[in-house]
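Recall the central idea of this unit: under ordinary conditions, the amino acid sequence of a chain determines the structure it adopts. In this exercise we apply that idea directly, starting from the sequence alone.
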Amino acid sequence: MIVDSVDPREVQTLQMYLNEYGQQMEVLAQQLNLIEQQRLESLAAVESIQALGQSDDGAVLLPIGGGAVVRAKVLDPEHVMVNIGSDVVVERTHADAVEYLQDRITELEALGKKVAGSLEQLRGQVNEISRRLEAVYRQRGQPPQPGQGGR
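Accordingly, the structure predicted from this sequence is:
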């Protein structure tokens, strides 16, 4: 496509797409951060459950908030309460809880890859639109406006 023939409405449309894609990228980045946080929490839970099974006296350090922890004795280390979603908590054996959490980690990793792929695809579209807008502004002798190219 020749830059001389660019319709001003097309430029406005490109700028609109650029803004929308930027917003979508922010949302996907936030989702990716939440997925990673859940994955790390699940990994920590697996480690804690496994350490609990190896504890001789059932004593653990229990975080109570504000960076404070207390030593607590777990009465039934062979059973773990696991949130399975929608605030539903079920009791699982030590081994079943670890397996459930490891499955959750696998699902979160797959979801994270999918979201990262979508984010990368949007980045490519944003880069293409930015290049197109830069070419239009260069042709017109105008500098790109903030948020409209030059990314």
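The chain has a mean pLDDT of 87.
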